[in-house]
Amino acid sequence: MSPIAPIVHPIEPTLHPTEPLLQVAGLAVSYGRIRAVDGIDLAVEPGRIVSLVGSNGAGKTTTLMALSGLLPLASGRIRFAGEDITALAPELRVARGIAHVPERRRVFAGMSVRENLVLGAYARGDAVDIASDLDRMVALFPRLGERMAQLAGTLSGGEQQMLAIARGLMSRPSLLIMDEPTMGLAPQMIDLILDTVLEIRKQGMTVLLVEQNAVEAMRLSDHVYIMRLGRIVHEDSGANIDPERVKSFYLGADS
Amino acid sequence: MDYLGQLLANGLVLGAIYALAAVAFTLVYGVVRLVNFAFGELFMLGAFLTASLMLPEVRLLGTIVPMPGFSLPVAAMGAITLTAALGVLVDRIAYRPLRNAPRLAPLITSIAVSVVLQSLAQTIWGAEELRFPEFYLATLPPVVLFDSIYLSVMDLVVMATALAAMLGLSAFIARSSLGRAMRASAEDQMAATLVGIPVNRVVAAAFAIGSGFAALAGLLYAQTYGFAHSSMGFLPGLKALTAAVLGGIGSIPGAALGGLILGLVEALGSGYLPNGTAWKDAISFVLLVGLLYLRPQGLLGKPELNSAGRGSLLGGASEFGAAWLRTSFAKVDGALARAAAGGPRAALALLALAILVGALVPSDYWLRILTMVVIYGMLASGLNVIVGFAGLLDLGFVAFWAVGSYLTSILFVLVLKDQFGVAPADIWWLLYLNLPLAGLLAAGFAVLLGTPTLRLRGDYLAIMTLGFGEIVRVVAINWMDLTNGPMGIRGIPAPNLFGIALGSPRAQFFFALALAVLVVFAIARLVRSYVGRAWVAIREDEEAAEAMGVPTARYKLYAYAASGFVGGFVGVFYAHSQQYISPLNFSLFENILLLMLVVLGGLGTFVGPFVGALIWIVFLQLALDLPFVQAYPETRFALLGVVLIVLMVFRPQGLAASARVALTMPGARPGARRVKEVA
Questions:
Q1: A252 near A58, Cβ under 8 Å?
Q2: More exposed terminus of chain B, fewer Cβ within 10 Å: N or C?
Q3: Could you give one GO CC term from the UniProt record (chain B) (predicted)?
Q4: B190/A106 Cβ within 8 A
Q5: Long-range contacts from B543-547, C-beta under 8 angstroms, 24+ separation
Q6: Among partner residues A111, A115, A123, which is closest to B196 by beta-carbon distance?
């Protein structure tokens, strides 16, 4: 991948050097009367991989959807790259540099791989460099290059995941949000996807990851947040976290 | 051969127009899964606006207004732009708040929008036809093909315009960035949002293009037939929808194909069938019913569209609107629910109140109005069986009502009186025989129609029932020997019991009340049985019900038959009470009205239809006293539409949602929601 220009583009200069790229304070989300996320704080430093782990129903996906503007907040603030984006429409958040690779990939099944990728650049508004970005994606995932004209729905699960990541990168984000990128994939494919995550981080990308596989997530991440019933119950750097402790959170024992 | 050629040419022109309007339906359905019935009215507005812009002056709201007098192309561009803007506005106000509402809500809203637009057009342009000004191309001599087929220059223009518009749209959807965004939003709105597509704006663009196409179709239609009229959009709108479904809704080539087929079939049918021009409207619907039976997804459609009706059609509340508005709706709801929780005692109290009112109201005028309230309440109760309890939108319910009314009228007047000279008073007992007989006949029709069609779901079922209702109406108009056609049947005898005439308004009111007790009691028993529980299960989630072993198609059929029975049953009394019926009594508008009464009062409640009928009919009478309404009587119907839209947007679950019959067994929770059995 080295001969190709890096995928990551410089972060907005407005960012103060010591401020996290993404900062979340008191974020709460409700579904009707049920409070799915109950006042959480998060900080994602530039160039890091940060993961959010927890059992089903902990509120991880809800948190990510609130970050990209798909769900309204009950309360809390979100700052991104030095700007308050709490009230920003989803498409404007994409334009500011947040790409969200959703759970279950959700590629546009009836459209070709190329069209999916081109749509990824929709929010950019500049049609100029799309061709070179397509080349970069092919360099990152050669398999996609072979299938450019194929309908996305006919790809295998792993290939669809590659496409979903590449589609997210086409918007030239500074933060890549990934929701369970390894769900339902074969072990080999899981390794490939996780290696890709490390690779794009090496090029300077910041990643916020939700992963069911807590062990892999801890191995990969610079920082880990553990969620339970809509709250963050523990956080530490990936290397320091005690696997036994994590297990107790998953199994529901009180900490 | 010459004749065939000319018919084919005519069919192509008509088909091109249908295809253009079908594109509107298919485009919007493709993006937001909404059958926007209002396109028929945007079609009409396209025609009116074009004609108005071409004239030197127009009479609007009774005043002469000077107009620019543009030529056709300029006026058409203006009309298309205005209609597109209106389409976007309608989406913004009436549909966007309902994107996550129960699936029935936007469909009902679009019907209401239709009613509003049509009444407004009639208010603005008047009830008369507006002659479409002649364009200079139309004065050129016709083109003659093969020495025998005549095509006017404008016919060629119509076809060329339609072709160009459709090719242009296809290219736009396939290649442009906005077109790609439209396809992406159609496939997966969440994923589209995540790649940065402003989905609401894309949907607005789809509405703008669709409305523009509807306007274009409308103005070409008006140009071809030479006039614009406020009701001109109804049938072409239905046919365009038919064409879209025929070709496979959601597919643009499908819409083109469906439009062409429909145009050709209609032209050939009216040319070759005996008395074909009278029957051509029925041909399209027969074609639709047949096709949906054989291939529900349409010719070029994808099969999964039929399963779009996932989940409850009624559940879910609106998150939309100010807090005070929602709390006040909730208060009304709570009061109605408490009233409904009174059980048989409350029901008897209500009945006693109705009897007291019937005995004490001095004016015959108000007694007649109250009788109408009870009749409409009963009819709405019948519709409520299928819509409120089984959760299926039925737009052809009036057909059952018509069957009942016509059965008894034909027997009494056309057969016994006219053929055999029997005085109605001598066979007074026949009325009481006709009541169940008409119910059974209507239920028979329901089974006949329902057996093939109830496999369909959601929107397709609604379209199918709409087609059925129209077929019955067309038959009533055209089968002169059986129904007397548009003249209707006069001299239907008033009800009579053992030789005592029950013709007085007070007697009729009590007669209606007695029938209402029967109807509501029967429906309540049925809904309380395991059949009713199966209905509610289907209403809440058809797939889950099926997975639990409920034979859904069979129970849907039962619901359809029960609703048909009530329609036929009440229809008999309606005819004897009105003493005159004509096909005009059984229009789609009546069906919409009944639907509104049910929604207004509360879908799936026993008392709701009567509450709705009381509110609406009394309102209608009181509104007649307002000077503005006296000047513009059509505005009452616009108001009906507005009420329905407001209700849907702010409270899609209906006024009395908490009084809705739940799945709990009586006695499972002592004192919990009991059901009122008599209204």
A1: no
A2: N
A3: plasma membrane
A4: yes
A5: B543/B310
A6: A123
